[in-house]
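A quick aside before the break. I want you to see a complete sequence-to-structure record at least once, exactly as it would be stored in a machine-readable document. Don't worry about memorizing anything.
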Amino acid sequence: MIICNPIPTYDDVVKQFTKFALFLFQFVAIGLAAAFIILILKPDLLNNIRPKVEIRQHTPTEAEHAVTHTNYTAPFSYATAVKQAAPSVVNIYTAKVVERKPSAEDLFRYYFNGTAPESSRVETSLGSGVIMTSQGHIITNNHVISGATEIQVLLNDGRNASAKVVGTDPETDLAILKTDLDKPPVITIGGSDSLQVGDVVLAIGNPYGVGQTVTQGIISATGRKRLGLNTFENFIQTDAAINPGNSGGALINPRGELIGINSAIFSKSGGSQGIGFAIPVNLARRVMTEIIEKGHVVRGWLGVRLRDLPAEIAQSLNLSTAGGVIITGLFEDGPALSSGLQAGDILLRVNDQPIFDVRSLLDAVAIQQPGTTVTLDGQREERKFSVEVEVAQRPAVTYRNLRR
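That is the input. The structure line, written in tokens, reads:
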């Protein structure tokens, strides 16, 4: 026997749909209520929801990759600049004999063992240098080779050679060496007068003797003076890492051109702290040229000893201008003495330019050629004066600067 289900009527369909809709509404309402209670009682649960990381990455084409490694101004790589400049940067190794005074322990050993104490010992040091001419001239820091009895240079291509000192300029901490290398790789010179804060630079040298190393940074400041490192200062400041052994190395721009000679760092630990100083290439080139062609650097000289004018003295004399210097002494063979200047005179202007301190007067006179005349304006007690002085040749300096 076959039993057939009766066909549902319209009312039956409506009742079943209503029951399903009511059930679905109750389920959704319960879910929303539970979520609301959780949100109120446990809001920290939402913190576990982590965002999806989305990175937009550019894959360079072959054309873009070629431009990156051939265009000097591209910011993506400085490999081309390094390849151009690095062969011209050399490692410098020096040796010098240091006299040694016998200690109490040495005398004790000599008395009991008969061992004579050593009277001298050999000290070695390292630094860097830059090949500047096809004749084999190398520029470095004076403190790198000061007192050395033997100097060896090692090139990036593996060649090494001995070097001799052509001349030094302790007042800018520069020295010129010469080797007999065949076809030395000469660096390309850039300009340092148009440098701006924020320009990218690269430092090349031999830090701690680990081998040639390149570091990158920017120019932090230009025209840094009054640091007490040299008599004549005009440093480029950079945050490119400069460490012991980098002295005398190259500071280059993104085109691989030399813009400075790495010289010193400011550090409390002995290592780089982002404050390094380089001698501008325009100054270094002038010093090198005069040493090679004339045997010494030509600078103007007045023959006076000076000190900055204290503010209280300026106020007592009713001086309206800021700055100035006091003459504390005169050299017997100096031009200032023969011009009538006296100890105690206050100098305020040179060639109608204000004198801010001792450094500004030294710089203004140093750039004058010996034999030229400068006009000095000043005050003696309460009387103003103006005097003309014929500048003489600045005597050679023999002191040694101490630094890293």
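Two observations worth writing down. The longest strand covers residues 120-131. The two ends are 113 Å apart (CA to CA). We'll return to this after the break.
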